[in-house]
């Protein structure tokens, strides 16, 4: 059967029994011949008619407009929303204006709507070549060595320039070759046999030129059989072939070569920068991890023994051993000593070694202490917030919102007792408590605290007496309940009156304390109570050791009530902060069991107003109302003073006092437990028990057998939890299996997306009947289903796959955060490239050729046409995320929802600090859309030129958002790698450049264009070899063969000893034996962690390490070890505060790389700094009476005028 299609008046016609073609004045259209046995009648009932470009809209063109308008509108609304809320959430969107050190903060932005589009930070950060000023100041170092985030910004700028060049070549060079003097697809392409049409969008792709070439090739092949070739046909054939040759030249000369040159040029800059970073910034030093699994021969070795072995083997010149002067002088006894020149140019030099033991139990104790500390700070904050400034006479300061009258007495509203911070509260707080967000600190599941066993041992009670007789009929709590009600602390206990089978009747009201492991009687003349009288003293008040003249506590007996009843109403105020409470000196106790001393006669002189107490001891009597001026016009007789909030009585304050006492006691107890556990940990290090591995600092550590380099070279880059729980080989395999399954599921989902997008393709809906309604329509609804719906679904599928990939990658066993980030980024890149781009294009091309596979005709040509047809889906993907993705990066909806809610529920300054702790840069999410856009651009920028401008918009908007986020939002709390990830990404970009010549070469092969296809495929192979070979050559590192014989001999000695098996000593048996031979533990804590290390390890760690280049400093602030600095990181704090006059614990320990649990100091209590001065009073009491370190929040300049470190013990 022979068919022909004509659209204009024929000029000449040539025919034979099998072929008919018609020559027109402007083009030649060939017919398609179908076998009669398989030919069927075309379905034309619901067939959509093809449309030429400029003659109207079809389904895909309508869908293109919808995909541009709808996501763009949503994206612009998100940009506008960010511009509106940015000034209102400075803790989220202006974090770098107050979190980093003052010298490293950017210039503050204004509150104008679009100020964030032009921040005073560079769009393309510079990479200076002259780094001679390194070390002069942190600001100068930040300029000379930009962070990894800034280097990513340079990479995005490079990608923007490359894609912009490709877009210009595609629009100005390739598109005219497709459109000028060629017929549209509606006239030149063969019509579908069943249903479906080519879209108007394909008129703007290479497919139009190929159809033009096919028609010319078909006509020329049939001419020699009949007549001499016509001149017009020869010109047309030459024209089509020349266009393809020009396209090939444009692709190679103007697209591939400039792109590769630009990428390699930037690659050279980053390589040179990394060399300077390693040599100058890091001083040529490395940080490595040597696992005990990879060095089983060192198990059971104490740290000192291992250091001595390293020194004797010739791998160190500066390790401190017991004999400090016996350092690296000879490598072996038979060798000559090293000269000073050789010592300075050592190829492998281990300068620091730190043993990492099993600290899981210690980490659980520290996590529990963190919870106790939080509860104590909550109770203290509630107490501080229970007071406010007031004035002697009523004023505006006394005005309070009107409250509903309670049903109690009608005189004042009743405030119920606060919920107890007991076990129930702790259970609830654990679920919602914010963990320590600082890198370099372990967070494990907390455990319940149990007092030491000797605390429950009851000693000899002889000599314990009482002034009261016991009442056998009265019910008293049991002895164990009485002891368990108050835990450890000062070790004082009060044994209730009851009969004991062992000791007989116990006297009532006597006090005992723990002495030598037994509870013994305490003299009642100088007893100490838990809860002082809230009418006179704060909850942390205690009798001073030097001034124990009298103790003042709240009484509960009848006599106390009678004494209070005699106080005159005008003399009920006493300022105990400035005057000794001499008119209230008495001793009383809870329950009224102790003898009550009568107070001395009261002075009849009325005290002045400034001596009045913070709040009355009892309710005032009702006085008549007199006419007074308005509150804001009254002249006060004295300055403001502090009084409790309305509705708070002694019972409520006493409940808060009890909570503070309970958590304060538990904090002291857990501090002692942690000090003992830390001492055990250092003993384990000294004896080589339960050692997980060793952290090494030095030069040439990559040559150490079994060592893993930590590229971040910082404390915060170490994954301490991974060092404690090293992932097994089976666990790593399981993680990669999960990643592979995720990729397969994503491939299946994208197959469905490609099938939906091909709903209107020629003859595709015939094999998938449920898509037939879409193929037969050219309206807006069909465009929405064929374009926007697949783009949105595909974007969501890819986002979910990336989220799973980022989560599962944590189980791949990386020992550093930089290594984990590298693995995650590589995995995401390969998933996007292999599944998101290559699989999507391939499966779409295969589905497009369903009819060819079914008819077994022109399968390769149909697949090639399908790969070009799929370029429209790639365009829809890019348009869908071009504006929305950068807006979501700016908006950070997750933090926007979480941080305000966390701030609302935050009670203490520490909770507020953890709520607003900065997020770090995530390269996988920040550049994911740009990567897939660059993949599509490197594949279709000339094949389908419309995709280039869309990718340019995506990268440019991402660059704008990236500049603001890096300059003002992202915290640099992670370590830097010197552009390691950016180097890998640039190398991959260079490989992506080969995608388009490779695909176009394959397409030309299906048309038997051998020369053009060979040139393009050869160019693609050359590009891959040049990029990969050049990048490998530039980043190569010398191998072991480059080392001297002496160094290799030392490494061989180290490796043989590390791999030797010691069957006679196993780690568990060693730990059991060594635990019985350790030194006797002394109760109490050491003055400092350094003293503990020095006493236990016999060799103090090299403190000069903190002044060396490695470990590198970061902007991390751990609120448990750097509480004073954390107190200054308030969004409302003054921008320029005077520097601290001391180094905090984190700075002192910056060069010591033991496990963070071993270095954890006693925490500093962080209290709010209220205007009433209650916070400062509490800080003094906690320091003076309980020896607990306290710092106050900094919210104003005057908060730091006085010495901020309130604990003299520090």
Automatic annotation (TrEMBL):
<feature type="region of interest" description="Disordered">
    <location>
        <begin position="319"/>
        <end position="339"/>
    </location>
</feature>
<dbReference type="GO" id="GO:0005886">
    <property type="term" value="C:plasma membrane"/>
</dbReference>
<feature type="domain" description="CSC1/OSCA1-like 7TM region">
    <location>
        <begin position="732"/>
        <end position="1002"/>
    </location>
</feature>
<feature type="transmembrane region" description="Helical">
    <location>
        <begin position="242"/>
        <end position="264"/>
    </location>
</feature>
<dbReference type="InterPro" id="IPR045122">
    <property type="entry name" value="Csc1-like"/>
</dbReference>
<protein>
    <recommendedName>
        <fullName>CSC1/OSCA1-like 7TM region domain-containing protein</fullName>
    </recommendedName>
</protein>
<feature type="transmembrane region" description="Helical">
    <location>
        <begin position="780"/>
        <end position="808"/>
    </location>
</feature>
<feature type="transmembrane region" description="Helical">
    <location>
        <begin position="950"/>
        <end position="969"/>
    </location>
</feature>
<feature type="transmembrane region" description="Helical">
    <location>
        <begin position="64"/>
        <end position="85"/>
    </location>
</feature>
<feature type="transmembrane region" description="Helical">
    <location>
        <begin position="733"/>
        <end position="760"/>
    </location>
</feature>
<keyword id="KW-0472">Membrane</keyword>
<feature type="transmembrane region" description="Helical">
    <location>
        <begin position="1013"/>
        <end position="1033"/>
    </location>
</feature>
<dbReference type="GO" id="GO:0005227">
    <property type="term" value="F:calcium-activated cation channel activity"/>
</dbReference>
<feature type="region of interest" description="Disordered">
    <location>
        <begin position="393"/>
        <end position="446"/>
    </location>
</feature>
<feature type="region of interest" description="Disordered">
    <location>
        <begin position="521"/>
        <end position="557"/>
    </location>
</feature>
<dbReference type="InterPro" id="IPR003864">
    <property type="entry name" value="CSC1/OSCA1-like_7TM"/>
</dbReference>
<keyword id="KW-0812">Transmembrane</keyword>
<feature type="transmembrane region" description="Helical">
    <location>
        <begin position="156"/>
        <end position="179"/>
    </location>
</feature>
<feature type="transmembrane region" description="Helical">
    <location>
        <begin position="829"/>
        <end position="848"/>
    </location>
</feature>
<feature type="transmembrane region" description="Helical">
    <location>
        <begin position="989"/>
        <end position="1007"/>
    </location>
</feature>
<feature type="compositionally biased region" description="Basic and acidic residues">
    <location>
        <begin position="400"/>
        <end position="412"/>
    </location>
</feature>
<feature type="transmembrane region" description="Helical">
    <location>
        <begin position="868"/>
        <end position="891"/>
    </location>
</feature>
<keyword id="KW-1133">Transmembrane helix</keyword>
<feature type="transmembrane region" description="Helical">
    <location>
        <begin position="920"/>
        <end position="944"/>
    </location>
</feature>
<dbReference type="Pfam" id="PF02714">
    <property type="entry name" value="RSN1_7TM"/>
</dbReference>
């Amino acid at each position: 059967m022979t068919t022909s299609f004509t659209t204009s008046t024929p000029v000449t016609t040539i025919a034979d029994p099998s072929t008919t073609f018609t020559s027109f004045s402007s083009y030649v259209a060939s017919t398609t011949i179908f076998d009669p046995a398989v030919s069927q009648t075309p379905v034309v009932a619901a067939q959509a008619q093809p449309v030429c470009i400029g003659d109207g809209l079809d389904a895909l063109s309508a869908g293109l407009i919808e995909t541009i308008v709808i996501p763009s509108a949503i994206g612009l609304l998100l940009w506008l929303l960010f511009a509106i809320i940015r000034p209102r959430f400075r803790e989220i969107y202006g974090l770098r204006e107050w979190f980093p050190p003052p010298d490293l903060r950017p210039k503050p932005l204004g509150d104008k709507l679009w100020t964030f589009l032009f921040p005073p930070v560079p769009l393309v950060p510079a990479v200076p070549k002259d780094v001679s000023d390194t070390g002069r100041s942190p600001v100068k170092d930040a300029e000379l060595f930009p962070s990894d985030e800034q280097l990513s910004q340079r990479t995005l700028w490079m990608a923007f320039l490359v894609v912009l060049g490709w877009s210009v070549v595609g629009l100005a060079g390739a598109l005219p070759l497709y459109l000028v003097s060629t017929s549209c697809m509606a006239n030149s392409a063969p019509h579908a046999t069943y249903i479906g049409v080519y879209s108007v969008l394909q008129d703007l792709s290479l497919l139009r030129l190929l159809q033009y070439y096919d028609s010319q090739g078909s006509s020329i092949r049939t001419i020699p059989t009949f007549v001499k070739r016509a001149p017009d046909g020869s010109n047309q054939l030459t024209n089509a072939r020349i266009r393809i040759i020009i396209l090939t030249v444009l692709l190679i000369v103007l697209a591939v070569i400039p792109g590769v040159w630009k990428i390699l040029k930037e690659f050279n800059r980053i390589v040179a920068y990394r060399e300077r970073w390693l040599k100058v910034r890091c001083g040529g030093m490395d940080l490595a991890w040597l696992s005990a699994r990879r060095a089983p021969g060192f198990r059971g070795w104490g740290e000192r023994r291992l250091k001595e072995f390293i020194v004797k083997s010739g791998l160190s010149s500066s390790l401190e051993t017991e004999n400090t002067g016996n350092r690296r002088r000879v490598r072996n006894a038979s060798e000559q000593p090293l000269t000073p020149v050789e010592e300075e140019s050592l190829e492998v030099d281990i300068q620091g070694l730190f043993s990492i033991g099993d600290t899981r139990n210690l980490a659980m104790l520290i996590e529990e202490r963190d919870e106790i500390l939080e509860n104590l700070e909550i109770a203290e904050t509630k107490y501080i917030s229970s007071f406010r400034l007031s004035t002697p006479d009523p004023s505006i300061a006394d005005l309070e919102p009107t409250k509903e009258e309670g049903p109690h007495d009608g005189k004042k509203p009743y405030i119920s007792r606060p919920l107890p911070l007991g076990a129930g509260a702790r259970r609830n707080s654990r679920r919602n408590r914010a963990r320590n967000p600082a890198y370099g600190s372990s967070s494990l599941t907390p455990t319940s605290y149990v007092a030491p066993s000797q605390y429950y041992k009851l000693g000899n009670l002889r000599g314990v007496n009482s002034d009261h007789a016991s009442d056998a009929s009265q019910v008293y709590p049991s002895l164990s309940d009485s002891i368990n009600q108050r835990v450890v602390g000062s070790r004082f206990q009060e044994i209730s009156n009851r009969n004991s089978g062992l000791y007989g009747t116990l006297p009532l009201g006597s006090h005992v304390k723990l002495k030598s492991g037994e509870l013994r009687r305490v003299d009642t003349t100088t007893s100490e109570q838990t809860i002082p009288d809230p009418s006179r003293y704060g909850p942390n008040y205690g009798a001073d050791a030097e001034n124990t003249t009298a103790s003042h506590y709240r009484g509960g007996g009848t006599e106390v009530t009678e004494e209070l009843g005699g106080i005159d109403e005008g003399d009920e105020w006493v300022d105990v902060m400035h005057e000794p409470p001499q008119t209230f000196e008495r001793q009383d106790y809870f329950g009224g069991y102790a003898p009550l001393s009568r107070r001395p006669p009261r002075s009849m002189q009325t005290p002045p107003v400034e001596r009045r107490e913070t709040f009355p001891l009892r309710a005032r009597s009702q006085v008549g109302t007199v006419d007074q001026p308005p509150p804001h016009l009254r002249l006060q007789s004295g300055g403001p003073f502090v009084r409790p909030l309305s509705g708070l009585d002694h019972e409520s304050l006493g409940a808060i006092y009890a909570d503070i006492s309970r958590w304060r006691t538990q904090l002291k107890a857990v501090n002692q437990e942690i000090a003992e556990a830390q001492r055990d940990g250092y003993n384990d290090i000294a004896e080589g028990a339960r050692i997980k591995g060793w952290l090494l600092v030095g030069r040439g550590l990559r040559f150490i057998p079994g060592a893993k380099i930590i590229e971040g070279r910082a404390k915060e880059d170490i994954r301490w939890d991974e060092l404690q729980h090293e992932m097994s080989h089976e666990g790593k395999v399981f993680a990669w299996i999960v990643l592979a399954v995720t990729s397969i599921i994503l491939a299946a989902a994208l197959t469905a997306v490609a099938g939906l997008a091909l709903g209107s393709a020629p003859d595709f809906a015939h094999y998938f009947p449920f898509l037939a309604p879409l193929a037969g329509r050219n309206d807006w609804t069909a465009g929405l289903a064929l374009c926007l719906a697949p783009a949105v679904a595909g974007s969501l599928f890819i986002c979910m796959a990336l989220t799973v990939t980022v989560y599962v990658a944590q189980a791949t066993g990386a020992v550093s955060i930089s290594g984990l980030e590298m693995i995650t980024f590589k995995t995401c890149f390969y998933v996007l490239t292999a599944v998101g781009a290559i699989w999507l294009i391939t499966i779409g091309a295969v589905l497009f050729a369903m009819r060819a596979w079914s008819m077994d005709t022109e399968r390769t040509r149909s697949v090639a046409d399908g790969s070009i047809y799929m370029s429209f889906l790639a365009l829809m993907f890019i348009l869908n995320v071009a504006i929305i993705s950068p807006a979501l990066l700016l908006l950070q909806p997750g933090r926007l929802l979480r941080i305000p809610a966390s701030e609302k529920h935050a009670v203490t300054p520490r909770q507020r600090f953890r709520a607003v702790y900065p997020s770090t840069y995530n390269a996988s999410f920040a550049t994911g859309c740009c990567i897939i856009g660059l993949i599509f651009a490197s594949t279709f920028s000339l094949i389908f030129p419309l995709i280039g401008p869309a990718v340019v918009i995506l990268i440019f908007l991402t660059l704008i958002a990236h500049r603001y986020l890096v300059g003002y939002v992202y915290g640099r709390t992670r370590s830097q790698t010197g552009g390691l990830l950016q180097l890998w990404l640039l190398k991959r970009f260079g490989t992506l450049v080969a995608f388009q010549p490779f695909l176009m070469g394959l397409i030309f092969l299906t048309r038997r264009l051998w020369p053009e296809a060979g040139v393009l495929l050869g160019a693609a192979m050359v590009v891959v070899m040049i990029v990969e070979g050049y990048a490998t050559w530039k980043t190569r590192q010398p191998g072991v063969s480059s080392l001297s014989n002496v160094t290799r001999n030392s490494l061989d000695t180290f490796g043989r000893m590390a791999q030797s098996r010691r069957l006679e000593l196993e780690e568990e048996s060693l730990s059991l034996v060594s635990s019985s031979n350790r030194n006797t533990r002394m109760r109490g804590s050491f003055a400092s962690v350094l003293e503990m290390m020095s006493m236990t390890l016999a060799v103090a760690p090299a403190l000069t390490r903190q002044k060396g280049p490695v470990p590198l400093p970061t902007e991390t602030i751990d609120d448990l070890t750097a509480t004073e600095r954390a107190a200054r990181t308030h969004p409302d704090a003054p921008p320029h505060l005077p520097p601290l006059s001391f180094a905090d614990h984190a700075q002192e320990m910056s060069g010591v790389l033991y496990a963070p649990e071993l270095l954890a100091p006693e925490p500093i209590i962080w209290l709010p700094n209220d205007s009433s001065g209650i916070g400062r009073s509490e800080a003094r009491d906690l320091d003076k009476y309980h020896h607990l370190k306290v710092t106050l929040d900094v919210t104003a300049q005057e908060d730091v005028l006085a010495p901020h470190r309130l604990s003299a013990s520090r």
